[in-house]
Specification:
This protein is mostly helical. The protein has one domain. Helix content is 47%, strand content 7%. α4 (82-91) packs parallel to α6. The longest helix has 21 residues, at 10-30.
Length: 139
């Protein structure tokens, strides 16, 4: 039996490469915490990260075979930033990496700034940008 091999779509290959670079940049710039590390920051070892994820307060990505939580969604004490829950509500229908990468992409909704840079100083502005991003386009 002869199997016809499919040549990958060049656009899909280019997008896959861009995704890898963007994912690596996100982890390199902000780091990511395992469930245990999230729990250690709060001095609570009892599956705290999983609980917060189930409550929609934080989100996780899969990276190098582990479930990780982008560190930008936590304050200095290791607690979820309150605005993250609203952003997850607005954009959570996206895949976890799509959601994570939204935070580090410049957006017109924020005047060309990145949402991640405004999470603590302008959380309501970032939440509004997420809601605008999620809203259907009207013509």
């Amino acid at each position: 039996m002869v199997v016809k091999s499919e040549v990958p779509n060049p656009v899909a290959v280019l997008q896959a490469r861009r995704n890898v670079v963007a994912r690596e940049a996100l982890i390199r710039e902000f780091g990511a915490l395992t469930s245990l590390e999230v729990a250690e920051q709060d001095q609570n070892k009892a599956a705290l990260a999983h609980q917060w994820k189930e409550e929609g307060r934080i989100f996780a990505v899969h990276y190098l075979g582990a479930t990780c939580f982008p560190a930008f969604q936590f304050d200095a004490a290791g607690h979820p930033l309150p605005v993250i829950a609203g952003i997850i509500e607005a954009l959570g229908h996206r895949g976890s990496w799509q959601l994570a990468l939204w935070f580090i992409a410049e957006t017109g909704w924020l005047g060309g700034r990145r949402p991640v840079d405004l999470l603590e100083c302008e959380p309501e502005t970032v939440l509004e940008a997420a809601r605008n991003e999620a809203a259907p386009l009207l013509y």
